[in-house]
């Protein structure tokens, strides 16, 4: 009997976030068992976030990475699916109708084999950007424009001048519609592009990071004349955020500040960025406490200072709180992708004057395979039911939830025992949250008997 599959539990709910007015969208970034889905939550009159819709790709059957990246702008949503078509990748445009429901508009797909098109996405009005950081081993960013007839067409392709294999150009991506920031953390730089005319973009400048191991450009954020570049590997993994300001000539940019290190441990400060007014939220998911969010405030003279640190009690040491962030409209969503052995969760905070208070934890049940009982399933063409096989038939399958496991539970050992008096056979299954006893005397009908915490 087969009892658990790691890809089923490590779905990393919360690995991608987008926040709109009274709406939160959550993606899964490590769902390797099924086609991806994006969860849509809306806040009710009592301030509770409830699931309102799930977005999927019609007729999708294979794991496609749908939900790997999200970009929201008003009534338009861009979703990356970087594992689609054997990792060539794709992206999907959704629009919200008058009833508040999201509907699929079109599919974008340009990347070559293994390009991971859709790893990062950005959206500003009628301009959509989709990154393929493995395109040609260097990476590329594709620019799409919405025509007056509502079609989305490729308008440009942005490439790194002097790009080299392993740059991962496009890992970090941001735009306001006329300026584009593209991070290449493999070599540690950010390229700035500016639109000249419709469909024509020019390379303006390049910002170099402190070294290729700093991950400079892993995350980028653009807000008017100000830009933020994360280097979560800087300082041996402590992390830092670089602040750039556009100069008065409207052409050049100047480095104004370097934020961090604030937490003197390899916390990977800068793993996520979000801006709310004069406050910059920065994720540091690898603190010993299980992750943190550091808030920096911009003072009257333009200097940034750390004002507070938010930590939580989720899976101390393993929650990876601050892996993702989305802030706005009096709400903050903080991804904690390590919760429940990688199942993932989202902590929602509400603004209370000048402070933020945790009000809800969103952690939906995991999807899992249905039990297989009642008779053997032959191994044919390398598969038995939903499972790979090699000349071994499947007699039965129980998902871990069917023998006492909770959300994100793993199995870690299995023993067999035969009762010498009755001849009945038992499986003693070690779980990360206890031990299960399963009667397998009839191998086609395993029966869960009990649990030892």
List descriptors.
mainly beta; globular; single chain; 2 domains; 453 residues; 4 helices; Methylamine Dehydrogenase, Chain H; four-stranded antiparallel β-sheet
What does this structure look like?
- The protein is mostly beta strands and 453 residues long.
- The protein folds into two domains: 6-362, Integrin alpha, N-terminal (Methylamine Dehydrogenase, Chain H); 383-452, no CATH class.
- Helices cover 4% and strands 48% of the residues.
- The protein is built from four helices and 34 strands.
- The chain has helices spanning 6-9, 84-87, 234-237, 339-342; strands at residues 13-20, 23-28, 38-43, 49-55, 66-73, 76-81, 90-96, 102-108, 120-124, 127-132, 140-146, 152-158, 172-175, 179-184, 189-197, 200-208, 219-223, 226-231, 240-246, 253-259, 272-276, 279-284, 292-298, 304-310, 321-328, 331-336, 345-352, 355-362, 383-384, 387-388, 411-418, 425-431, 434-439, 447-452.
- The strands form nine sheets. It has a four-stranded antiparallel sheet, with no helix packed on it. Strands 5-6-7-8 form a four-stranded antiparallel sheet, with no helix packed on it. Strands 9-10-11-12 form a four-stranded antiparallel sheet, with no helix packed on it.
- The longest helix has 4 residues, at 6-9.
- The radius of gyration is 24 Å and the shape is globular.
């Amino acid at each position: 009997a087969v009892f658990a599959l790691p890809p089923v539990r490590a779905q990393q709910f919360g690995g991608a976030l987008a926040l709109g007015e009274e709406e939160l969208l959550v993606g899964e970034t490590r769902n390797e068992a099924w086609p991806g889905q994006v969860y849509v939550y809306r806040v009710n009159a009592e301030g509770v976030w409830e699931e309102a819709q799930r977005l999927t790709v019609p007729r999708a059957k294979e794991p496609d990475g749908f939900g790997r990246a999200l970009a929201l702008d008003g009534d338009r949503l861009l979703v990356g699916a970087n594992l689609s078509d054997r990792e060539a990748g794709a992206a999907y445009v959704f629009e919200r109708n008058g009833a508040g429901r999201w509907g699929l508009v079109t599919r974008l797909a340009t990347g070559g084999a293994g390009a991971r098109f859709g790893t990062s996405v950005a959206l500003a009005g009628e301009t959509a950007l989709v990154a393929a950081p493995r395109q040609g081993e260097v990476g590329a960013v594709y620019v799409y424009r919405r025509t007056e007839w509502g079609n989305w067409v490729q308008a440009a392709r942005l490439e790194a001048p002097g790009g080299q294999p392993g740059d991962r150009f496009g890992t970090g991506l941001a735009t306001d519609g006329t300026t584009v920031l593209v991070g290449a953390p493999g070599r540690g730089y950010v390229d700035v592009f500016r639109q000249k005319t419709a469909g024509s973009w020019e390379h303006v400048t390049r910002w170099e990071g402190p070294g290729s191991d700093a991950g400079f450009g892993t995350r980028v954020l653009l807000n008017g004349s100000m830009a933020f570049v994360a280097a979560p590997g800087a300082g041996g993994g402590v992390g830092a955020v670089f602040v750039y300001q556009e100069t008065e000539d409207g052409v050049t940019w100047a480095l104004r500040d370097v934020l961090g290190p604030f937490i003197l441990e390899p916390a990977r400060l800068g793993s996520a960025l979000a801006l709310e007014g004069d406050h910059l939220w920065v994720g540091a998911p690898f603190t010993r406490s299980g992750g943190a969010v550091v808030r920096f405030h911009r003072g009257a003279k333009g200097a940034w200072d750390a004002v507070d640190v938010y930590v939580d009690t989720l899976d101390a040491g393993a929650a990876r709180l601050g892996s993702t962030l989305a802030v706005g409209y009096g709400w903050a969503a903080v991804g904690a992708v390590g919760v429940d052995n990688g199942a993932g969760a989202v902590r929602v905070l509400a603004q209370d004057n000048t402070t933020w208070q945790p009000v809800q934890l969103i952690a939906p049940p995991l999807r899992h395979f249905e039990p297989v009982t009642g008779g053997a399933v032959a191994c044919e063409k390398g598969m038995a039911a939903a499972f790979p096989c090699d000349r071994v038939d499947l007699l039965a399958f129980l998902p871990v939830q069917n023998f006492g496991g909770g959300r994100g539970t793993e199995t870690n050992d299995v023993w067999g025992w035969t009762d010498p008096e009755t001849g009945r056979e038992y499986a003693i299954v070690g779980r990360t949250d206890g031990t299960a006893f399963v009667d397998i005397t009839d191998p086609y009908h395993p029966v869960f008997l009990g649990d030892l915490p």
